[in-house]
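I hope you will forgive my troubling you with a question about protein structure. The matter concerns a single protein, recorded as an amino acid sequence and a row of backbone structure tokens. Please examine both parts with care and let me know of anything in them that strikes you as inconsistent. Thank you for your consideration; the sequence and its tokens are set out here:
***
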Amino acid sequence: MYWNDLDHHLGEERLGNFWMDHPRVRAYINESISGTAERWSTDWFRDTFAERLPCGEALVLGCGTGGLERDLIGKGIARRALGIDVVEEPLAFARDAARAASLADRIHYRRADARAFLEELEDPAEAIFFQASLHHFDDVPGFLELVRSRLRPRGLLYLDEYVGPSMSSWSWWRLMPLNVAYYLLPRKLRRGRLVRAPVNPDDPTESVDSGRIVEAVYRSFRVLERRDYGGNLLAYLFPNLAKPGNGRRDPTPADFDRAVAKLIALEKKLLASRWLPESASYHTVLVAEVAAR
């Protein structure tokens, strides 16, 4: 399976093209969520919901290599964590990382399909977390209704997710603002001629039903907090930027940083424009709870 290859989680090529890893972009994301460049989304969550934390056990669905679980325990958000993923290689890495952090007694992992795991779950969960994993699930409305049914009353749902267009929804008019912004950059910063639809033929789960995530959360839960952080331009243009090099035509590190700063400014203008519906951000942090019915 595509995600069983650790290079797709931690490989240098992926991380080198990952928009969230650039320091200036990271500061922009943190400021959008928490108000300051230094506070990450989990810091904001811990401080905002301090009276309801720590939870006894955090259930993390689609845990990958386990970074979120270690963060939740390390920041006192949860006393224990259980990570669920369908592939083994990332789970093995996560177990090793938990042991290296002396957290093996507080973080556990299970290889399982998330739907099957939830259907068989006997004791309601106190809190369920998704971090860049929910957009890989199909039938998001039905799946989130299952998530709701497995949370205890007032149980918390936390997601930090891509909630933009589903893979089948990309069209020329969605690509147009990306390419306009791309051609506003100097030629030496543009690696290719066009920005194309972000379809990954090797991973059919990529953003398979992402366009329905927000609507489904509001339908099944009471939303307590929402923090949008964009990515409408940055997530797609960053991998298409030419990276700094030593050649005469290569951009310098200063050129690259100026291009990133320009894209951040353009994205802020796009998200604030009257061309987009309110809250049209492609990435968001949502915190919700099970409402009484």
About this structure: The beta strands are 55-61, 78-85, 107-111, 125-131, 151-162, 222-230, 283-289. The chain has twelve helices and seven strands. Residues 205 and 290 are 27 Å apart (CA to CA).
